[in-house]
Design a protein that fits this description.
Layout lengths: L32 H10 L7 H22 L11 H26 L6 H12 L22 H4 L2 H9 L18 H12 L3
Helix pairs in contact: 1-3, 4-7, 6-7
Bound molecules: heme C.
The site of heme C has 26 residues, from α5, α6 and α7.
């Protein structure tokens, strides 16, 4: 079985994707940086409290924003004589930036390359593809260079090429890698698709 493709890794908001991975493995989707603080905050609202984080907080915030001109009708403009509003605003910003900071600390530790691509690269080495193929100057030239194969071919074609070379290239002299599992084929293809 192929891992299910719930995550659209071609989405630019997913970290670690340099080009499209048409058969993604497990990547953690990460929201745009400007939403990070909110997603971080949501982690504190578990189970029945989830609705507070997803709905109540947002509704209260926008209600307050909308009502602010009606609630705060004091004509004084100088910040120092508007301690409550300025204080509340400052507190809000502190909370937002604290959550953003906590979130960024987690994001920075996440792998930049899809783990599947890393496994694919290892397979490429252990299977000895380099005995016939060259990638950016490394490997032999018995078969075609694969440095940009990701831009030239699609994933399904590459998989067929591995399982049964004859099916895409008549009279192929490349050995068939029919014994690879679906997961290994996926990893290897993800690696090839990300070459550039
Ligand atoms: C014994 C040599 C040999 C080995 C080992 C080998 N290949 Fe090939 N490969 C070839 C040759 C030769 C061709 C092109 C003509 C053909 O199929 O005969 C080719 C073609 C390809 C192509 C098509 C490139 C294109 O754009 O047309 C891909 C992709 C490819 N090989 C990937 C791999 C991968 C991945 C491995 C390792 C799992 C591998 N090959 C191992 C010889 C080899």
């Amino acid at each position: 079985m192929l891992p299910s493709c719930k995550i659209r890794t071609a989405d630019a908001s997913v970290r670690g994707v340099r080009t499209s991975i048409s058969r993604p493995s497990l990547l953690t989707p990460i929201p745009e940086w400007c939403f990070l603080f909110y997603y971080e905050m949501l982690k504190y609202f578990r189970g029945p409290w989830e609705i507070v984080g997803t709905v109540v907080v947002a509704v209260l915030f926008y209600a307050l924003l909308f009502l602010l001109p009606f609630l705060d009708r004091w004509p004084e403009r100088r910040p120092f004589s508007r301690a409550i509003v300025i204080g509340a605003g400052g507190l809000l910003l502190t909370v937002v930036f604290t959550f953003l900071f906590i979130s960024l600390r987690t994001v920075v530790k996440m792998p930049v390359t899809d783990p599947s691509v890393v496994r694919g690269k290892q397979l490429y080495q252990t299977l000895g593809c380099a005995a016939c193929h060259r990638i950016h100057g490394e490997g032999e030239m018995i078969g075609p260079e694969l440095s940009y194969v990701g831009a030239q071919r699609d994933a399904d074609w590459l998989i067929r090429r591995l399982k049964d070379p004859e099916s895409v290239a008549l009279g192929s002299i490349m050995p068939a890698f029919a014994g690879l599992s679906e997961a290994e084929l996926t990893d290897l293809t993800n690696y090839e698709m990300n070459l550039k």
